[in-house]
Amino acid sequence: ESSSSIYGYHKPIMLAGGYGMIRESHVKKQNIPANAKLVVLGGPAMLIGLGGGAASSMASGASDASLDFASVQRDNAEMQRRCQEVIDTCWSLGNDNPIL
Length: 100
Prior knowledge:
Elements: H1 52-57, H2 65-70, H3 77-91
């Protein structure tokens, strides 16, 4: 006996990709001239990710409190966005890019 019902499983498939272009002059680092100004981007340095994956998988309080605090991974989306804007502005200057 046949049935008019059809059963099946639908597996969602996600495809993602991208393409880009980079100038040949931006591929390799250049030598830094004497007396060049150095700019450091980012926020305050913190102890993050110490102890590797094992430390972040341990139960809280199972080790030294300082390691518990240092093994937590933190992000700062605001600072990441600001730094990326600086980098994007620099490379968009083309041959006048100040990044060596």
